[in-house]
Amino acid sequence: MLSDLARQLSMRPAPSDRAVGAYLLMHTAVISGAMDFGAKNPGCSENEQCRTQLNQIALQAGSAHREELAQLAATSDNPDVYALGVYACSLYEPVTDSRCSQLSAEQWARLEPDNAIPWFYVADSAV
Length: 127
Description:
The protein has helices spanning 2-10, 15-40, 48-74, 79-90, 105-111, 116-126. The protein starts with a helix and ends with a helix. The protein has one domain. With 127 residues, it is an all-alpha fold.
């Protein structure tokens, strides 16, 4: 099962393994939260207010793992770990009281200057 693999990865000593584990745990929590809510609220996809509530529940379900990943990224000089943190934090509405605020596209670009992707994030934030 994916969550078992994610847990195993999150306990490994290598920061990149832990980051992938946290990223997978975040997504499995989001999917699980969304499925539970959807099962309790059939027909939700047809109601805007219900969809908004579903998004909030999904965001909250994965927040602990997103925060863990953001903290790992903020203290890492590994560009892969940092990239996962930035990407995980950018998937959902910006959360100002989050560890995600410690991450920046500029730092990712400094860690990995030959990768165009962080530079796209830098350019997007300048607009």
